[in-house]
Amino acid sequence: MILQHRLYALYRYDKRIVVPVSALFIVIFTIMMVMAVIVYMYEKDREAQIFGACCILGSVDWLYRFWIPMTGLDFVVVVLAGYKSLQHYFHVPAKT
Predict the structure, then answer these.
(1) What's the confidence (pLDDT) of residue 47?
(2) How far apart are CA 55 and CA 49, in angstroms?
């Protein structure tokens, strides 16, 4: 979220950047919440108390995929920031 606000400021709140990135964030957040509910429904019957700590006895094999959508969003934000950085670099005159 912080990276998005910095990206928006970098592009001076250009609607061509703000709207697609915000929509992508909402879609990815929704996907992650659906995946979290699915994992919760699967694992709520597999919890056990061991020495007062809650442990999961058998987790789903695809639990690592939970972070793939957010990693994709971060990749898009980094590419857009990198593009703006290169654009600025090529417009700055050489000081040598």
Answers:
(1) 60
(2) 6
57 to each of 42, 54, 65, 90, how far by Cα in Å?
Answer: 12, 10, 19, 55
Residue 62 and residue 51 in contact, taking contact as beta carbons nearer than 8 Å: no
Choose among 17, 15, 26: nearest CA to 69. 26
By CB atoms closer than 10 A (0-12, 13-18, 19+), residue 39 is middle
**74: its two tokens:** 């971060």
pLDDT tens digits for range 79-94: 999 999 999 888 887 7
Q: Give this prediction's pTM.
A: 0.75
